[in-house]
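User: quick one
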Amino acid sequence: MQNIMIAVLGMSILGLFWALVLVFANKQFFVKEDPLVEKVIESLPGVNCGACGFAGCGACGDAIVTKKESPTICPVCNDQTKEDIAEMLGRKIVKDPNQIKLIAKVHCAGSKKYLKLRAEKYNGYPSCAVENITGGGTKACTYGCLGHGDCVKVCPVEAIAMNSDGLPVVDEQKCISCEKCVLECPRSIIKMVPENQEVFILCSSKDPGKVARQVCDVSCIGCGICVKNEEQGSFQLKDFLATVDYQNSQKVSLEKLREVSTKCPRKIITVK
Amino acid sequence: MVEYILIFISAALINNFVLSYFLGICPFFGVSKKTSSAVSMGLAVTFVMTITAIVTNLLNTYFLKPFDLTYLTYVAFILVIASLVQVVEMFVKKTSKPLYNILGIYLPLITTNCAIFGLALFGQLRDYGLMQNIFFALGAGFGFTLALVIMSGIREELEFADVPKYFQGVPIAFLTAGSLALAFMGFAGLIS
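Assistant: Done. Structure below.
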């Protein structure tokens, strides 16, 4: 009995002592922080996506106030908020009129409808990263979307959702250009494209034509017909994969691009 | 004096906390991607270890042992280490902003790290005196920093290496840590 009393009493005193020390320290060593920093942090979206390059909205707000960073480094908050923050700090935002918002786009159209499956099925943990490590997965294409939705989980604003075919679709209105999904995708098939882009080749397969043709009905076989038919350099061919040059294709008329798209033997050039 | 130096070298190289006891593996892999942050982390750990060594030793000699409460070692140590580090963090924040920026984010992170706690328990187990314990902590902290800096150096180079697809990232880091531990085994015969 006495032992218990000593133990309880001893530990209580120890705990109380340190609690008092903490209280005292908090009073004594309290550091006043700039109230402006707190106000700026409150105005920021608070999703902590890290797209500005800082550890989170807190660090970003601190940098905006103390290190004279511009509020425009935040790609998430709208123009009004940025102007509000600038006004709070007595600064002005110089706008770049040529800047076009980038949105994430999934460069794969290989849903279950079009894609061959392997004989052996992946039964492991439902995560693209895990399936990719274990050596390829259920779908026969080694470049295509794995469809477990790692990108859906990582999106801080829920802009990505899986459609009925098992492919992720990005909501262009909601996308905040934070590029988290770009980093998360183990097969790197999500790329950033200009908001007003109208022509896409939604394939990432670098397999040679024969293999690409075997594994997927909507794959690029690297024939290069699109590159030959368009002289302005809208299309480029590398590693058996034709890609759209998002800068050059902006200058070409839609009619021309539509015409080129009809000549694609795989019909995979999509024009809005 | 020789005794203290022996304790220091033994804790730093021969019985390295990370590579021989496998304590503190979490920060060893988590914060070893960049050398600059590895150094900061190492400094923070050394700092907290030294404080821990002093406090736990005093606690052990003047509170736990006289009252026969050694079975409460774990609870008492965690309580004291955690709150003391909090106080020190506040103190550093008030007095030295640059030092806080270097150590700041790591300090709360490592209050209950197993390397810190392992140090406190080893000190108690081996019946070290106060000075012995301090040198033990300094050695362990130095060894931890050394392992972290070596590892971060290797991992910075690994970024440019042609690693096989399935070994990229953490797997190759674990393999590297294994070879590093093997290399440190070479120190085993340093003091006989």
